[in-house]
Design brief:
About 50% of the residues lie in helices and about 15% in strands. It is an alpha+beta fold. The strands form three sheets. It has a four-stranded mixed β-sheet with strand order 1-4-5-8, with helices on one face. It has a four-stranded antiparallel β-sheet with strand order 2-3-7-6, with no helix packed on it. The protein has a two-stranded antiparallel ribbon with strand order 9-10. Strand 9 and strand 10 form a beta hairpin. Helix 5 packs antiparallel against helix 6. The structure holds flavin-adenine dinucleotide. The site of flavin-adenine dinucleotide has 21 residues, from strand 1, strand 3 and helix 12. The site of flavin-adenine dinucleotide (FAD) has 21 residues, from strand 1, strand 3 and helix 12.
């Protein structure tokens, strides 16, 4: 498959303006708040997003009907990477998780009325949202089929009952896209439905903020309780029992956009390390003249370049209307680990400075580590990649048998 590596001029221009905007506006705020977006509150979010609107770089991913630039996945790869240069860049452009993935899902699945009520204010940055799928054990996690939250039909709608955790951005979200079982039992592969549940709906409450290694996501990661939460029929997103299919609509692009943003942070970490290696002197030479440091810098360049190509390949497949299941799993696994390696090497090159709060490397180190777990752990993806590959072989053997037999 051939991939055109030259971004079209419109995308290249937006990427260049995004890079300039992020350095001028997002980086100073990120340094001021040590990369903890929540520390700046809604005021910070509104300030950054207004600045992005003024700079003409806001909402690059949503269609023009909802005020965006309508980039395809390859265009997003180029622009999101530039936004990812700062932890606050994605927030400014309104392309941070989970809102960005939710916008993608709503554009693909929601009714016209749901788009007006939920997508438009989200795309405009007027509200935030969250996506509630994961549950405490033994519920849904790596295996979504374990889904235990249930929605039962009642007069005029549904009653939702269950518990969710690690729900990013739940605190302050205007609504939750909640996955609940509408048929079958935990363990069944089908029977899930997505519901749009407004904040403040009786019975839905945040039971705690989970203390985590990372602190860069707005609204934190929360545990939620659903206790006889009543929603009307029009809260169903798409069709009943199709939730797992819709999750796929969201997941492949969402895991790639995470890769794009974290690739930006990997480049930033490498930049900090290279600058330090060029300036720091020891043993009668510059740090960057020492072979073992050069090897680390080279390995990080290789990780960054390979990550970019794997992302573009999966994006090209999605743009062609293909599922990109295998290529997005490959990209997600490689990039999540490569980004971790790059940040780790950068920190090592900077010595004690890297561990300190004087540079943002230790913040990046904490922020990128969870990416090997969410959007499919490395192990879940490796398992899926191998199964798909083995299936190909089995199919090839079967078709060989048929042609020999025929
Ligand atoms: C920072 C962060 C943000 C998150 N945000 C959200 C959110 O907004 N909404 C939401 O719904 N969820 C969210 N999650 C949850 C995330 O999707 C789950 O953590 C993920 O699906 C893994 O599920 P689990 O944590 O239950 O791990 P488990 O399912 O218990 O898996 C534990 C470990 O088992 C191993 N494993 C899994 N599959 C295999 C396999 N096939 N072979 C071998 N080993 C395997 C892996 O090492 C895995 O890490 C978030 C998680 C984190 C860390």
């Amino acid at each position: 498959m051939t991939i055109d590596l030259n971004a079209d001029p419109r995308v290249a221009d937006l990427a260049a303006r995004t890079a300039a905007f992020v350095r001028a506006v997002a980086v100073p705020e990120e340094e001021r708040l040590s990369g903890v977006a929540g520390a700046g509150g809604e005021e910070l979010r509104h300030h950054l997003q207004q600045a992005a609107r003024t700079a003409g770089v806001f909402a690059p991913h949503v269609s023009s009907e909802y005020g965006g630039h309508g980039l395809d996945m390859r265009g997003r790869a180029v622009v999101f990477e530039e936004a990812g240069w700062s932890l606050f860049g994605p927030l400014a452009l309104n392309i941070a998780a989970p809102d960005e993935g939710n916008m993608h899902l709503l554009e693909a699945v929601a009714t016209a009325e749901q788009k007006e009520k939920y997508l438009r204010p989200l795309a405009e940055g007027a509200v935030r949202s969250c996506f509630a799928m994961t549950e405490p054990a033994p519920g849904a996690g790596s295996d979504p089929a374990a889904l235990a939250t249930v929605a039962t039909p009642t007069a005029g709608g549904w009653l939702v009952n269950g518990r969710k955790w690690f729900i990013t951005g739940a605190d302050g979200a205007a609504y939750t896209i909640c996955m609940a079982r509408t048929s079958g039992q935990p363990g069944d592969r089908g029977g899930a439905t997505m519901f749009l549940i407004d904040a403040g709906t009786p019975g839905m409450r945040i039971t705690r903020h989970i203390e985590t290694l990372d602190e860069g996501f707005f609204g934190g990661h929360c545990e939620l309780e659903f206790d006889d939460v009543f929603v009307t029929e029009d809260a169903v997103l798409g069709e009943v029992d199709k939730g797992f299919e819709y999750a796929q609509v969201r997941l492949a692009p969402a895991r790639l956009t995470h890769c794009m943003r974290w690739l930006g942070i990997a480049r930033r970490a490498q930049e900090i390390a290279v600058t330090r290696a060029s300036e720091r002197e020891m043993f009668g030479s510059r740090l960057g003249d020492l072979g073992m440091v050069q090897a680390m810098i080279a390995d990080s360049e290789i990780d960054i370049a390979a990550s970019r190509l794997l992302i573009l390949q999966a994006c090209a497949e999605l743009d062609q209307g293909r599922s990109a299941a295998q290529s997005s799993s490959i990209a997600k696994t490689f990039v999540a680990e490569a980004v971790g390696r790059v940040v780790d090497r950068s920190l090592q090159i900077c010595g004690a400075l890297g561990i300190s709060g004087d540079v943002l490397l230790s913040r990046y180190y904490r922020e990128v580590r969870p990416f090997r777990i969410y959007d499919g752990s490395s192990e879940t993806h490796r398992w899926a990649i191998a199964k798909r590959r083995l299936r190909e072989s089995v199919l090839a053997v079967e078709s060989e048998k048929v042609s020999v037999g025929g």
